[in-house]
Amino acid sequence: MRTSHRDARWWLASSAAIVIALTFGVRADEPKVEVPPYNRMTDAEEVALGREAAAEIEKERKMSFVTVPAVQEYVNRMTQRLVAQSRRAQLAYTVKVVDTMVVNASALPGGFVYVNRGLIEWSRNESELAAVLGHEIGHVVGRHGSNNLSRFVSLDSIILEASARLLGTPAPALMLKQIGGPVAFMAMMKYSRTDELQADLLGYYNLQRAGWSPEGMVDLFKHLGEGSTALDSIMAITQSHPAPADRASQIVAELKQFPPAAGLTRDSAEFKAVQAELKKLPKPVSAS
Ligand SMILES: [Zn+2]
Q: How far, in Å, are 25, 65, 71, 155 from residue 98 at the CA level?
């Protein structure tokens, strides 16, 4: 009798869990982001540091941006749609389209995302581009950058409290200086293979919640495997990027185990229109 009660309770509890999971779209295997104890950076500190680093890096690399409103607005809309469905939607993400033909994208801590014009022109459909954005947002959600920085530099209470006391804010400039400036910052930010695979998985679930087919991620890795292009390699954010085939097989396994809903977006007329807009622009002079 007691056993059957327990069984009934167990059954009720697990049914409730399944109902909750279905209602909120939470999948059992979406990686749960754990913040390591050595990363004591608050969201505000991470954003302040990311903003400062972004400004310095843009200056140092003489980055120029595509300012065509149709392109900018389109990429921003895609980014915000993904952000809203991400596990770190409380940050105010920004995205910039870098005017370079290098096929690449990157994200700095705090939600500063860069997508190269070359990547948008190279993508074969909208879900490939969405997959890249989902991956980059995944790095921010996974706190990969701030974890790395915290591992290398003692961004502990001494620096943070001292700067906060001196200037009344987390004082990003002081933090960046303590790190050694933008070049050291980028060197320390390099993501591990584990970070890359986690960013892919976070992106995989984020894409679906935002309405894009995660098949786009498989398309992307196949596409990457066809050439010598390695995402993130130019911005030197990756230590050793996993081979596209390894990244694809992780996602293919996920697709088999948890097939996505039908009717998710693969492509759009707007994406093609944005590509056409970009192709009309003069080729960028800068190589980076
Ligand atoms: Zn990456």
A: 34, 4, 11, 30
Say if residues 127 and 213 touch (Cβ distance below 8 Å). Answer: yes
Distance 51 CA to ligand 1 centre (A): 19
**pTM beyond 0.85, yes or no:** no
Question: Ligand 1 centroid to 232 CA: how many Å?
Answer: 6
- Helix, strand, coil percentages in the chain from 3-state DSSP, rounded to 5: 60, 5, 35
Q: Note whether 117 and 97 are within 8 A (CB).
A: yes
Q: Beginning with the edge strand found earlier in the chain, give each strand of the sheet holding 105-108 in spatial order.
A: 94-98, 112-116, 105-108
The pair of structure tokens assigned to 216 is 């786009």
Given a contact cutoff of 8 angstroms between Cβ atoms, the answer to whether 130 and 82 are in contact is yes
pLDDT at 159: 58
* Ligand 1 centre distance from Cα of residue 116 (Å): 14
Give the residues of the chain that fall short of pLDDT 70: 1-28, 154-174, 227-241, 286-288
pLDDT computed for residue 45 by the predictor: 85
pLDDT, position 218? 92
- Ligand 1 centre distance from Cα of residue 196 (Å): 5
| Distances, alpha carbon 232 to alpha carbons 160, 183, 242, in Å | 29, 16, 11
Round to whole Å and give the CA distance between 175 and 49. 7
Taking alpha carbons only, the member of 186, 203, 182 closest to residue 83 is 203
Distance 69 CA to ligand 1 centre (A): 27
Q: The tokens of 283 are what?
A: 């080729």
Distance, CA 215 to ligand 1 centroid (Å)?
Answer: 18
CB 106 within 8 A of CB 125: no
